[in-house]
Amino acid sequence: MIWNLGSINADNFYDLPHLPGPGETLTATRFRQGLGGKGANMSVAAARAGARVMHIGATGADGRWAAQRLFEYGVDIPHVAEVDSATGHANIHIDPQGENSIVIFAGANADIDEQMIGAALSEARPGDTLLLQNETSGQVYAAKTAKALGLRLIYAAAPFSAAAVAAILEDIDILVLNAVEAGQLHAATGRELDALPVGDVIVTLGSDGCKWISNTARTTRLFPAFPVVPVDTTGAGDTFTGYLASALDRSLPMPQAITLASRAGALMVTRRGTADVIPDLREVQDHDFG
């Protein structure tokens, strides 16, 4: 089972002729709203990949629709609390090539406290997985609790914070980050990825595929990307991480888990949106990448 301490956002999408520069005002050609947040995206991806997922998070009263949509997508939500703050949201700018820039307001995601996390993880069992990222409060408490309970900890180091990584580095079993975040981590720590006290490090490389560094086996392996024409890269990394967590939770070997997650991430970039358009397992397995 996967326990995901993760953000829940309302995602506001603005299609633009190009990403804005400093001081520039642009008129959007299209607007739409959907369920998002790195945490919600990962929960939906893991559930659609076949895992049982328990989301630990929070919304405001204005976000009841978001919690309900998580449930509709197969995610368990008894540990999604309603707090006095506004629901988190993200304003996402997308250019015609599918590249994006994102501004996030944390809202209720910053109001998750240790009592909420402890109540949820008291139901976890050794061998379960805890999934973490950096859009909520409570990561340190959750990581220490997970370690004490014998859970596997998968940590997506995004949005990147050197202090957040350092605070739980010794507790991480699997670290997932993109190439930019990997560079930021090296700059902050002065340590190569194969020198980190983490069993497995996975670096997503966009159109160049991804790299798996097994510090347990002292091996590095590259995985090629699946050929696609991207229309929106938003949520692709979250989809990758959710599928990876689900595959490992179902006891797939790491190479198979990475391949499945890469297929899911590649298919995701051909769609516009976030949690609402994450592909299910059958779509990912059956898709012909040519």
From TrEMBL:
Keywords: ATP-binding, Carbohydrate metabolism, Cytoplasm, Kinase, Magnesium, Metal-binding, Nucleotide-binding, Potassium, Transferase. Its EC number is 2.7.1.15. Activated by a monovalent cation that binds near, but not in, the active site. The most likely occupant of the site in vivo is potassium. Ion binding induces a conformational change that may alter substrate affinity. It is found in: Cytoplasm. Pathway: Carbohydrate metabolism; D-ribose degradation; D-ribose 5-phosphate from beta-D-ribopyranose: step 2/2. K(+) binds at residues 232, 234, 268, 271, 273. Catalyzes the phosphorylation of ribose at O-5 in a reaction requiring ATP and magnesium. The resulting D-ribose-5-phosphate can then be used either for sythesis of nucleotides, histidine, and tryptophan, or as a component of the pentose phosphate pathway. Belongs to the carbohydrate kinase PfkB family. Ribokinase subfamily. This is Ribokinase. It comes from Sulfitobacter aestuarii.
